[in-house]
Amino acid sequence: MTTLLADISSVFSGAVSSYGYLGIIALMFLETANIPVPSEVIMPFAGFLSARGELSIWLVVLSGVAGNLIGAVFSYSIARRVNENIKHEHSFRIAERWFKRYGEPSIFFGQLVPLVRTFIAFPAGMFKMDKARFFAYVFSGSLIWSAGLSYIGWFLGDRWNVLGPIFSRIDVLVLVFAALAALFIVWYHKKNHKNNENDHRQLEKQP
Length: 207
Fold this sequence. Notes:
Layout: H1 2-32, H2 39-51, H3 57-79, H4 90-103, H5 105-110, H6 116-119, H7 121-126, H8 131-156, H9 163-205
Helix pairs in contact: 1-2, 1-3, 2-3, 2-8, 3-8
């Protein structure tokens, strides 16, 4: 596992070394466009390069935010084109009502959680969240995330890569939580569907 993490870090840090700000933008774009590229490797390494004077810390942060915004808007735009047939599903309507009532702030907080931030823009587009609020949430969350990781890398210097193993453990926890949440949603959907069928049968039996 340690060797794999080292190889991953080497690939992405090499891209940042070779292409600088453009490399940061491209990789951070991929991360929020539903491709799990590890910003916890990209941004700390870019911060480390800033500490060495090879990059500007301010431009590093802005590049990270720009990449995230472009990727999130891309994912949001694709999700808005969700199949019209899905919108008529009962479970979709329940999820849509929940998201519009409680879920919009999750776009901001999701930007601060590894792995979640990769996919969080998709439900925003699927449920047609207001574009201005979506942009504001993604911008503010990405700014905190990019700045925090960059400055940690700047502070740690040559030890910037100690973050990789830490965040990999967080990723595992997020995956476990997501799996449990998915199982709960499936169970709830089946239970709700069964209750609806029972109610329908009771109505049919009434004279």
